[in-house]
Amino acid sequence: MNDGTGSREPTSPGRRRFLISTALSGAAPMMGRIGPAEAAETGAPPAVTPGAMPTMAISLTVNGRTHRLDLDPRKTLLDGLREEIGLTGVKKGCDHGQCGACTVLIDGRRELSCLTLAAAAEGREVVTVEGLAAADGTLHPMQQAFIDHDALQCGYCTPGQILSAIGCVQEGHAETADDIREYMSGNICRCAAYPNIVAAVADARARMEG
Amino acid sequence: MADALFPQASGAGGRPFPRHEAREKVTGRASFAADMRLAGTAYAFLLTSRIGRGAIAAFDRAEAAALPGVIDILTFEELADEVRPVPFVFEGGYVADTLRPMATADVAHWGQPIALVLAEREEIAREAAGLITVAYRDVKPPAADIDADAAETLPLESLEESVGDFAAAFADAPVRIEARYTTPPQHHNAMELLATQCRWDGDRLTVYEPSQYVNNVKHGLAQQLGIDPARIRVVSPYVGGGFGGKGFLTQRTALIAIAARRLGRPVKLVATREQGFTLSTYRAETRHDVRLAASRNGRLLAHAQEGWELTSRADVLAFGGSEMTTRLYACPNIHRRVNVVRADRSTPGFMRAPAEMPYPFALESALDELAHALNMDPVELRRVNDTEVEPFGGRPYTSRSLMPCFDAASDAFGWRDRTPEPGSMRDGDWLVGWGCAAAFYPTYAADAAARVRLSADGRVHVASATHELGQGNYTMMAQVAAERLGVPIEAVTVSLGDTDLPPAPVTGGSVGAASLAPAVMAACDAILRRLGSDGAPASDALAALAASGQGAVEEYAETRPHGVTPETIGALSRGAAFPAGGVHLPDRVQFAFGAHFVEVRVHSRTREIRVPRAVGAFAAGRIINPRMVHSQLVGGMIWGLASALHDATEIDGRNGSYMNANLADYLVPVNADIGEVEAILVPEEDRRVNAAGVKGVGELGTVGAAAAVANAVHHATGTRLRSLPLRLEHLLADGG
Predict the structure, then answer these.
(1) Secondary element (H or E) of residue B73
(2) Largest Cα–Cα distance in chain B?
(3) What is the DSSP pairing of strand B113-119 with strand B70-74?
(4) Per UniProt, which keywords does this protein have (chain B) (predicted)?
(5) How far apart are CA B118 and CA B587, in angstroms?
(6) What is the reported pLDDT for A47?
(7) Would the N or C end of chain B have less CB density within 10 A of its end CB?
(8) A192: which chain B residues are within 8 Å (Cβ-Cβ)?
(9) What is the CATH number of domain B446-576?
(10) Is residue A8 part of a domain?
(11) Tally of CB atoms within 10 A around B198
(12) What number is the average pLDDT over the span B384-398?
């Protein structure tokens, strides 16, 4: 499998802007990033009191909203999103970075939230599947394409597939069916909706770029 | 656009409506078991055994217990007999494995739950589990697999059958094939992990757990806990892939229910991927000796298949798939035998096409060997031996479209351009091979119930405790009700996956549509009768409701398919309804059919095996929704390709552990592994099979596909591989 780095030009600004404006429309006033000073302050090593559970204060910006949380310093971004913020669209399929079900966008780039500590996401923009549709309910073109092409069955890997597919298009790795197969291979679909996923990504790429 | 993507089998069925719950699934709002957020939850982490056979001498848990945030640690020392024994699900009980969780110090296999840590946070529970030291005693080397010397072979005489005189016919026949085929252990590896959440409200328990049979969990758990089943509710509105692995009650559920009761707060377990390999069931490894004999024109004269299937020491489980493979083709002399091989493993279970992946792999490979020996086209060999009646008792197939499927797929694939000589279709560095095989799956159905409500505002609600695994039950039920009551599908809402709803059977054996469609139809028909509009166009129902002055009308219906005996009345409400059909009917046999054609490319130097394209054609009676069916069949075909090339669990013979119990080392297909996969729907009308004329398709696409790949590998290379998965090292070993 190719990890998707190095063989193509970096993501074009146009595609990235499209994503962020689509993903965060309606939430623009809350998009402020945490500055380095604030990040350093909240990211300080946790104070461990004997007899107490280790805890650190973390601020996470997800889908344009900032959440201030007291978390176990070992908390993964995946568990933080699911258990603390309640964004359960992000899924745990292996917890080892092997399946892609937990894929989110971090600063516009697809990343595995099970291999990302929550603390490491501080000061960065996290987008989950809940943040893709417009405020009026209009689906992101990738979400709509997954419905139109029946690119899902049980639906468990679907949020990760959709976010990964958005990243795939923005990286310029969705120009051909073979490219899509290669660059979507980090997201396992055990129901094996692969042919329909390839069709959906190709269709959404046209809609996103059109 | 969507309609063009999902071609309809002409005249055979319904419209390709989009997946009814798709919007919930693409927005992240579909709540799977682990997504339910319960206030005050404590987190559980399991510790599992790290020996293959022996006993626990002692736990040292002081350090774990002292960790801040740890609430409790449960082992057999605390639980002892708290989980009551319940019989095996295939022997009138409920559990997938009769080994009771944490009941004694004994360790029967690697990966058995031995301790449950409860903590305020998942991270702490996990850390604490790592701090527990387990001392074992009486550690013995296990019989780790089907070939282990210490495994015990047990012939199942009740599954032995004969017709004619196999031995004499085989001895006298002009052309004979005799070969052994094997299939490996495989694990479902649904993307969703095995999660369980339990919450007690007073003496009432709610269980959130992905399940293919919520009423099995409810009633089995009630027996394990010794409480009235009316006090248990099991909720599972979305299942993140089942494939058989979430079929029946596993050991974890009672442990979490007991933990939640002891703590007086909800408890959540999300088992790790590795733990899932031994917490639930799996497809056991199998071995098959097939003997075929034919006349020079290809007519089968003798057919024998002896199978061996691995099972645990605790439970005898055998699928005995030769009951189907020996009934597929005309033949006067047949013999079949089935053995189980007991080893020190957890109890295996259903996995997509449980009998119908391994047994047909053997038969359809052997037929290809026979065709080669006869110098006969493998499609024609099937045609010569096609039959309208099964060869043991002469019972008729309710419908049989095997050869129409072969012909449709053969045409679409371009089979006529095949040159039969192995190695004759080289393309540059790639050796090209084309192979084919039959697909068939028994049509089962079970008792089922549904409730339908038609409201004066035009809305319809359908409810049944069936399950959505991705096969399309939400869509199918909405579509059947919409058609029957003359409302648009958008007006229909569906509730399922909840024991508070009308009972439904296990969602396994591809029974969903064949069981539920008749129940939904019957409830709708009862509404039409109440309104006096039965026999009138469906669109009259709403007008009749308006005329009646009622705000809504609701009806409940229970249906019983052909072959389900009256003795099973009540089984549905006890969570013990089992499907009937296939070859188990007195007057007929019922199957769906198909045919696979695949192209493989084997690299001439590296022996890498690729499958750039696969074409399947399938006939399964009335197709309610061709889009859902198409997706199921394509997914099933890819499962078959995966069995051919990927799926296999590796066992360490020293301790019975699974060496590749994670998604990096256990190979499942990824997108780049899959080329063009085409599924053609062949029109078929079967008015006898059930009231809806429906045959299940969830497993059909998987059956036979692995044999088609193996046959194509032989055509490409001249090397016959008889053990799954087919890997490049096997071609190198043969000298290529």
Answers:
(1) strand B70-74
(2) 81
(3) antiparallel
(4) Molybdenum, Oxidoreductase
(5) 55
(6) 54
(7) N
(8) 634-635, 638-639, 642, 669, 674
(9) 3.30.365.10
(10) no
(11) 28
(12) 97
Which residue is it, tokens 């978390």? A71
Shortest CA gap A38–chain B (Å)? 26
Q: Give the pairing of strands B676-681 and B609-619.
A: parallel
Instruction: Find, in chain A, the residue whose alpha carbon is nearest to that of B2.
Output: A148
Determine contact: A146 vs chain B, CB below 8 A: yes
Q: Which residues of chain A are within 8 Å of residue B5 when distances are taken between CB atoms?
A: 148-150, 199
**A1 lies in some domain:** no
Nearest residue on chain B to A128, judged by CA atoms? B28
Determine whether B699 is an active site residue: yes
pLDDT of residue B703: 98
Q: How many angstroms away from the CA of B17 is the closest CA of chain A?
A: 10
ipTM: 0.96
Tell me the nearest-neighbour CA distance from A132 into chain B, angstroms.
8
CB contact under 8 A, B670 and A1: yes
Nearest CA in chain A to B187: A190
Tokens of B271: 């088992």
pLDDT band at B356; cut points 50, 70, 90: very high
Q: Give the model confidence (pLDDT) of B582-607 as tens digits.
A: 999 999 999 999 999 999 999 999 99
3-state secondary structure of A141: helix
Return the domain boundaries, chain B: 41-140+191-241+246-279, 286-443+585-733, 446-576
Q: How confident is the model at residue B408 (pLDDT cuts 50, 70, 90)?
A: very high
- B18 pLDDT exceeds 90? yes
Tell whether A82 is covered by a domain.
yes
Q: Which CATH number fits domain B41-140+191-241+246-279: 3.30.565.10, 3.30.365.10, 3.20.20.370, 3.30.70.100?
A: 3.30.365.10
Number of folded domains in chain A?
Answer: 1
Same fold yes or no, B41-140+191-241+246-279 and B446-576 = yes
Task: Please give the residue of chain A at the shortest CA–CA distance from B29.
Answer: A89
Q: Report A:15-54 residues touching B (Cβ under 8 A).
A: 51-53
The count of CB pairs under 8 A between chains A and B is 202
CB of A152 within 8 A of CB of A88?
no
Overall average pLDDT of the B291-307 stretch: 98
Q: Which domain does A98 fall in, by range?
A: 13-209
Nearest to B122 among A79, A128, A191 (CB): A79
Write down the pLDDT at residue B578. Answer: 81
Q: In 10 A of CB A48, how many CB atoms?
A: 13
Tell whether A105 is covered by a domain: yes
Summarised one tens digit per residue, pLDDT across range B466-479 is: 999 999 999 999 99
Tokens 């943040």 locate to: A131
In whole angstroms, what is the distance from residue B86 CA to residue B225 CA?
10
- pLDDT, one tens digit per residue, over B438-470 is 999 999 999 999 999 999 999 999 999 999 999
> Does the pLDDT at position B653 exceed 80?
yes
Residue of A156, A161, A164, A198 to mutate, interface with B, max B Cβ within 10 Å: A156
The span from the CA of B478 to the CA of B298, in Å, is: 48
Q: Which residues of B touch A88 (CB under 8 A)?
A: 28, 31-32, 34-35, 37
Give the tens place of pLDDT for each residue, B52-92: 999 999 999 999 999 999 999 999 999 999 999 999 999 99
**pLDDT confidence band for B540 (50 / 70 / 90):** confident
User: Of A101, A150, A155, which is closest to B30 when you measure between CB atoms?
Assistant: A155
User: What is the topology classification, in CATH, of domain B286-443+585-733?
Assistant: Aldehyde Oxidoreductase; domain 4 (3.30.365)
Nearest to B325 by CA among B351, B305, B298, B308: B305
**Tell me, what CATH number does A99's domain have?**
3.10.20.30
Active-site position among B209, B285, B684, B699: B699
